[in-house]
TrEMBL record:
The gene is rnhB. A divalent metal cation binds at residues 24-25, 125. Its main location: cytoplasm. Manganese or magnesium. Binds 1 divalent metal ion per monomer in the absence of substrate. May bind a second metal ion after substrate binding. Belongs to the RNase HII family. It is an enzyme of class 3 (hydrolase). It comes from the Bacteria. Its cofactor is Mn(2+); Mg(2+). It is found in: Cytoplasm. Endonuclease that specifically degrades the RNA of RNA-DNA hybrids. Gene3D superfamilies: Ribonuclease H-like superfamily/Ribonuclease H. Residues 18-218 form the RNase H type-2 domain. This is Ribonuclease.
C-alpha cells in the first residue's frame, strides 16, 4: 500500500502559496444524514514535519483505528475542521451544492482558527470544483484525482471528516434505531433499506432521492 506524501504540498508552497487548505468529503452517497467536508491546513512549518505513520485515505484505515488516526492527524496540522450540510440542504439544493456549502463552512472554520486565505490554495479531492461557486470569496482551487490517496494533507482531511461523521451518525442512532445508523452510518446497507421499506423515511433521510417506495414520516 503506497503511503501519501507531501510532494504536491511542498511544491505548491515553494511557488506562490503560503497556506494549503486540503478538503475531502464524506457521506456523498449516504441515504441519510449530512454530508461532511474535512479541512486540513498545511503551512511551511508543517510541511517539514514527518507525515504521521499509518496516515491513509480514511477508506483504507480500519474503523477501529480511525479515531486514533484522526486525533493524530488533527495534532499534526496547525488547523483542521469539519463543515456540514444537512439532509434538508441536500434535498433543497442538490448534492453538489450541499457539498459546496459544507466545504465553504469547513474553509471558514479554519479561517476562524487563523488560516489566511490570501496566498492560499485549496486542494480539493476529485475532479470537480464544487466549492468555488458557493464560497463568497474568490479562491484558488486545485482539484486532484485520488488526492485522498496520494496527498497527505487530503488524507488528514479525509480521516478527520470520516470519524466526525461516523460519530454523529452513531449519536443519531437512538433517535431512529430501526435504521441501525450505528452500524451502517446512513449508507445503503441491506438492513437500512429493509428498515426504510418497513418504516418509511425519517426526517434525516434525503427524501428527494429515490431510495424507497415508502412514505416519508414527518
Amino acid at each position: 500500500m503506497v503511503a501519501p506524501t507531501l510532494r504536491l504540498e511542498r511544491s505548491l508552497l515553494k511557488q506562490e502559496f503560503d497556506v494549503i487548505i486540503a478538503l475531502d468529503e464524506v457521506g456523498r452517497g449516504a441515504l441519510a444524514g449530512p454530508v461532511a467536508v474535512g479541512a486540513a491546513v498545511i503551512d511551511a512549518t508543517c510541511s517539514r514535519r514527518r507525515v504521521p505513520d499509518g496516515l491513509r485515505d480514511s477508506k483504507l484505515i480500519t474503523e477501529r483505528r480511525r479515531p486514533e488516526m484522526a486525533a493524530r492527524a488533527a495534532g499534526w496540522v496547525p488547523a483542521s475542521a469539519v463543515g456540514w450540510a444537512s439532509a434538508a440542504e441536500v434535498d433543497a439544493s442538490g448534492i453538489m451544492c450541499a457539498l459546496g456549502l459544507a466545504a465553504s463552512r469547513a474553509v471558514q472554520a479554519v479561517v476562524d482558527q487563523g488560516a489566511a486565505l490570501d496566498r492560499a490554495v485549496v486542494i480539493l479531492d476529485g475532479n470537480h470544483d464544487y466549492l468555488s461557486r458557493v464560497h463568497p470569496d474568490p479562491l484558488v482551487v486545485r482539484t486532484v484525482i485520488k488526492g485522498d490517496r496520494d496527498c497527505a494533507s487530503v488524507s488528514a482531511a479525509s480521516v478527520i471528516a470520516k470519524v466526525a461523521r461516523d460519530g454523529l451518525m452513531a449519536e443519531l442512532h437512538p433517535q431512529h434505531p430501526a435504521y441501525q445508523w450505528d452500524r451502517n452510518k446512513g449508507y445503503a446497507s441491506a438492513e437500512h433499506r429493509r428498515a426504510i421499506r418497513e418504516q418509511g423515511l425519517s426526517p434525516l433521510h434525503r427524501a428527494s432521492w429515490s431510495i424507497a417506495d415508502a412514505p416519508t414520516l414527518f
